[in-house]
């Protein structure tokens, strides 16, 4: 394991046709359509969580598709936006897990990212009003490689795989050196099938302490 690796070192290996095709497709689409997030935010997760600092990986699906909610972090929205239903359930589980009644005033998870929680969507862009519209343009090739690199070059990372889409990433992760916690997706349609009550946040912190890493302050948002 090389702890001095950076995102630039790793992702320079993905300067391939599929990646440039995806970027070119997005740039062309922006000429006539509304695409989220903005160009400057597509890779925000990589900017806020350095490769060296990753302790936890949360895998999302594709970005929020309405009204400038998406800003490059899975499940997160800018501070001036309403908290989406899935994130409300995440907050609900957090309070339940830690037996708190904390009132979350916004849905921006940038402080999680700065603590080492890598908030990675499988698909990095979406057309306004059309969920999963960029499923097949190459993003998953890229994000699967990102997960593979984290698994290969890091150790003792906690992967939170919520829902079927995230759990498809299981085989990319070396379970001999990392930890995987699985549950249903936190959306209102499926949260009751296992996400609510999963206690993933306290379990993650317990693992981090056992690995002599600093806990995540989940209420620091």
Percent strand: 5-15%
How much helix, percentage-wise, in residues?
25-40%
Number of helices: 8
Task: Note the run of SSEs as H and E.
Answer: HHEHEHHEEHEHEH
Summarize model confidence as the mean pLDDT.
96
CATH topology: the name is Uracil-DNA Glycosylase, subunit E
CATH superfamily label:
Uracil-DNA glycosylase-like domain
Low-confidence spans: pLDDT under 50, at least 5 residues? none
What count of structural domains?
A: 1
CATH architecture: 3-Layer(aba) Sandwich
From the alpha-carbon coordinates, what is the Rg to the nearest angstrom? 17 Å
Give the helix/strand class: alpha/beta
Keywords:
11% strand, two-stranded antiparallel sheet, alpha/beta, 221 residues, 8 helices, Uracil-DNA Glycosylase, subunit E
Structure description:
The chain has one domain: Uracil-DNA Glycosylase, subunit E, CATH 3.40.470.10. With 221 residues, the protein is an alpha/beta fold. The protein has a four-stranded parallel beta sheet. It contains eight helices and six strands. It is globular, with a radius of gyration of 17 Å. 33% of the residues lie in helices and 11% in strands. It catalyses: Hydrolyzes single-stranded DNA or mismatched double-stranded DNA and polynucleotides, releasing free uracil. It comes from Buchnera aphidicola (Aphis fabae). One of its GO terms (biological process) is base-excision repair, AP site formation via deaminated base removal.
